[in-house]
Amino acid sequence: MTLSVRLAGTAALGVLATVPVAAQRAAPTTWAITGARLVPVSGPPIASGTLVVREGRIAALGAGVRAPADARTIDGTGLTIYPGLIDAAGTLGQRSATGGGGGGGGGAAVAAPATGTATRPAGLRPETDVLDALVTDGFDGPHGAGITAALTAPTGGLFQGRSAVIALRSDETAKMVVRTPVALHVAFQGVRGAFPGSLLGVFAEFRQQLLDAKRYGAMQAAAAANPRGTARPALDASLEALQPVLAGTMPVAFNASSEREIHRALDLAAEFKLRAMIVGGQEAWKVADRLRTMNVPVIQSLNFPKKPTNVAADADPEPVRVLRTRVESPAGPAKLAAAGVRMAFASGGASWTDHLGNLRATVKAGLAAEAALRAHTLGAAELLGVADRLGSLEVGKVANLTVVRGDLFSDSAKVTHVFVDGTPRTLDTARPAPAGGRGAGAARAASLTGTWTVTVALEGKEYAITLQLTQVESKLTGTMQGALGTAEITQGELTGEGEFRFTAPVTVREGTEEGVFVGVLTGNAVRGGLSIVGHALGRFSGTRPGPAGDAPRGAGRTRPSTMP
Amino acid sequence: MRLPMLAAALVAAAPVAAQAPTTLIKNATVLTVSRGTLANTDVLLRGGKIAAIGQNLAAPAGATTIDATGKYVMPGIIDPHSHLMSDAINEGSLSVTSMVRIADVLNPTDRGIYRAAAGGVTTINILHGSANTIGGQNATVKLKPGRTVQEMLVPGAPPGIKFALGENVTRKNSSTVIVQGQSPAPRRYPTSRMGQAEVLRDAFTRAKAYRAEWTDYRARTARGEKGLVPPRTDLELEPLVEVLEGRRLVHAHSYRADEMLMLLNLADEFGFKIQTLQHGLEGYKIASEIAKHGAGLSSFADSWSYKIEAYDAIPHNVAILLRKGVNATINSDSDERIRRLNIDAARLVRYGDLTEEEALRIITLNGAIQLGIEQRTGSLDIGKDADLAIWTAHPLSVYARVETTFADGEVTFDRARDLAAREALAAERKALEAKEGSR
Amino acid sequence: MSRITLATLGGLLLATAPAAAQLGSYNPRAGARETLVIRNAMIHPVTGPVIARGSLVVSDGRITAIGATVTEPTGARVIDANGLHVWPGMMDGATRMGLSEIPQGANATVDASEVGDYTANAQAINGLNPHSAHIGVTRMAGITHVVSAPTGGTISGSAALVHLGGDTPPEMSVVRNAAMVITLPRRGFGGRGGFGGFGGQAPGSTQDADRARERQLDSLRAVLADARAYAAAHAAAKADPSLPRPAEDLVLAALGPAVAGTMPVLFNADRAGDIREAITFAEAEKLKPIIIGGADAWQVASLLKEKDVPVVLTGIMGLPSREDDPYDVNFSAPSVLAKAGVRFAISAGDDGAEVRNLPQVAGMAAAFGLAKEDALKAVTLWPAQIFGVADRLGSLEVGKMANVVVTDGDILEARTRPVHLIIDGRVVPLGSKHEALYEMFKDRP
User: Fold this and answer.
1) A446 CB within 8 Å of a chain C CB
2) Which stretches does DSSP call E strand in B138-235?
3) Which residues in chain A have Cβ-Cβ distances shorter than 8 Å to C278?
4) Whether the Cβ atoms of residue A519 and residue B179 lie closer than 8 Å to each other
5) 3-class secondary structure, B322
6) Nearest-CA neighbor of C179 among C366, C397, C386?
7) In this predicted complex, what is the ipTM?
8) pLDDT per residue over B100-139, tens digit each?
């Protein structure tokens, strides 16, 4: 089932790849957009002017600029030109097999035999380099949302690897790379079948590897200082890769979304004096003071939680806490800005068709439009170390442009063109935008997001529970309510092929235990097993409503409201 | 060798406590636990501490006064075995996971904190699970809803570590999920109580060698040798060295008398102490041996028969242990049962004839001793932390209910406030739904 | 409170302590029925006012006299209960007593369910181990009779109402087949078992699950209709020997009293929707329902009152099942039901080992709004009424079965000790596996 979905996705990628940003011909590369509104970000807007692109760079811009004679001209009347939007964190431009965003992959690394110089299982290798996973397709969706460049990072496990800033061009992977390596990406996620298998082990492994790296550095230095008198220390690619992190020359990008995850990341950063960034940051605004004090920037996900649709009548009502988070989240960036926290925006795995709406939501919730734009352009470029090349409309900078009919922050605005490295792509607004999220769009596997009514059978008894789950790329969060107690689920992840796992404290009769739920998703049904230390295997099975209108016989016969 | 990072985690609570409100509780029956019962007595809470206990105390300026006539004040309940607030409980991938720390994964927003506070609980020992022979490092926490983890960790509480023996470790009852042709996890050593003993022996043998390696390094450095690279800092063995040196308390999950005895003997052999046997349901069969080693024991009040190794459990366990001089407590190990430890304690008045003060002590002061925090909490004594609860009746009565709970002088539960908050919550839900609907 | 320690009973305990630990051999045997007078006690009849100082006479298994002054039969064994309290033995209406000894890791000690969806002919009385150590421990808390019910499937079988003072199931039996156990497929939670998912047909969505549930309900309705037809055919054949003799069917025969409305049906239901469904179903099928579980019963109190459907509450000590529930939502549920006029009983909600905590569960309800007298009734008279045995059990009245507990205090208090225990008119020595092990080890040097 899942396999066939993935094959379909590959086919779709192939089709899209036949519409490249840059065709392999010797067509003229000088362009001029005339009579457009220009928003340079680094300077004041220009109500009407011309912008000239030559050999991939911005050659000129301004009210008085005229289109060169050799330029191909676009009539910019009614258009606004922005610096190309930057998706400040994600998995764009990677094979789906390694990138959560590419469609269904990602999640915890599965411990596999080490090859080459690797001595640790996948997911514990800071030396992992995203460059090894780059592909040139999957840019339809992001282009439609005005994205021209992105930070792309490996996923899976704890030490996920090193990221790069790439231009979203579809010719050669080597030409995509703008800057590498940018950061070491870390997530509080274990590996499968090895230590660390849980959130607990994750912190211990992080500390141990950094301590080992310090010692490794000292041993290497000692050997270098006294090559004749010292035994040659064995090469350790992981510890080698951690040296710039320890030296503070490479930032550590922590995937952290909730308040407590962010505190945990900041605790580690303080402990090891790391240059930290927070990626995700749904509740970063709650930690704004500490972020500012520690001068830690936030790559804020714009994938704000959405109201669940189509909830089974018998499900437990969602907690006020969840409702509160949903209402508060879009206002987070405004609060971060007010607190003086540096910030860049990332799409965060939301559907590309929702992306600009999510961006606008931050403004509707109080963020100044200029600040929102900056966080998606120059601010992002600064955080990613590419502000000398990207992020603003300035002569000499890379000609990454996002061209919009109307104002980016009005709901009716449409992206009409994107320029990537000076090559334009006209977006066919007549064709429906790619549906279903990131990467190749339609190929995306079904999501676990939703409200599930689940029955758990454990040692001869059955328990009715409600799971409200949110899947963002390969990460799974949510709430459990019902006969096993109430809790937030933790350590939730998609592990590929529709398999998921999470843990939740379950209280059965008088004891509270850690329940590990492992299951598979099939359409609108889940099923799987529940492991508890010292107990026989439990089983669970649940559903969420299918498409509306698929009402069962007898539904609505007697169904008064659930509260008196 | 002692790592500096632990210290950072343990410093924050004091300033918060210092801001705690001043409260005068008037005319209560005060169950001090340490010095008997005081009738018609006032208790003054100031700066997070118990500032005064006596009759006709004057309310300082700015103090909130609570008339507790007809009510009872007892020390905050201490639960020596809980998994509240834990985003992860077991790191079961290895048989020795002494490197993992519960403090890393605490969730200060767990709803269970409040529900436990509503049962008069103020302090808990959050332990790693029982998946493996040597589990992770504990966290000693004051339950304060709305506070951060840093503000809840008990300053100065001695660090501890979880050990586990018996069925959970040998996995004789456990099964794990196998999905879609994934091969089952390989069997993990140990699968018997024999192997558990060897895991412990191996771990402490390695810890001793590790300590020797560092001792040697320091000696050479002290002799003036230059250019030495220090030995590896091993986060697995560091805590075990601390155990060997008496700087970390061992809390050992165990049921059967023979496995407890094995552990005590092994600890004697390696020269360390077991601070508490957790559950220890057959402790009554070897009470003298436990007393001789100096271990404490934290039992369930009366749970039994839920698995083989619990079939000989008896509710008189604690009584026998106390009579033999073992510092015994009862614990919940449960987000549910933690809410009514007073009733569990009351049962032991009947099973084994504990006095009422003894019964109260096994959920208060004795627990403080087991966690090494008796100098700051566990009884109503001037100068101790203001951890206490006001009850509507004698807390060993089934008819008693908590009116108000204080931890470090802060109100962590108040029934009147709770009732008022119910309407506020409903109103908030309405407002949020309206706001969301209007978007 | 007087402090009578168990040590005074030590001789008795030692005499009954077995030589070696072995499943099910610890419960001291009850003596023979005898004529007893309990004197000078504070008597709590439950159905009448407390008698501050009075006597109670037991003869041939029954209570024959009760009052401030009674005529004492000659030759009776006299128990001076000065300073003590006398109570009717308590009852838990939702246990698996004797059917499940060690649920984890000792499957061979569990006899609580049968294979199949409609195992109406499975009878708890035939799986009940009268020597379960749980029994001795339970009655030491003053619980003298329980309903022990099977589980599993849609129709699990029949529950037995037994007292805890006999050596054999027939001796213990009060009502051999006291109620039929039915668990309707859950609303919205994937149908009964929901385990279409593993091995069987997995529902593809909630609508799918609801359809599967409807099919299961239809199938159950068909079984009940068959049972009615079966009973009618047999009755007809009996009345008219010329009719052909109908075939025998053990399952349909077992359902006869339930579909006739003479035997109550225990519906396991906790969620509001499931409780409503059980009431609707029972009404349509003309069954006599008792809700077992009833966690959300407080939400549907008016319907329960309107339809006069009683509830045995098993989840009073359970954690709130919704994050925003008040902390005491389950503690205070009995008080809500009492105010609404719903008939209910309180159960410890345990299979066997912890049933002895029943009085403290009732006490917790009293701490959260239930009147103390009602808390006592909820574990004595009310369960007897709900199970139709109030003519025999549930209070201290002349003619009732002599299940009598003498304590040194309030029977719901955890600190209270039993002093004398009489079940079915027989004196039960105070002792259990726990007391035996206590005696065995308390003086070990």
Assistant:
1) no
2) 139-142, 160-164
3) none
4) yes
5) helix
6) C386
7) 0.94
8) 999 999 999 999 999 999 999 999 999 999 999 999 999 9
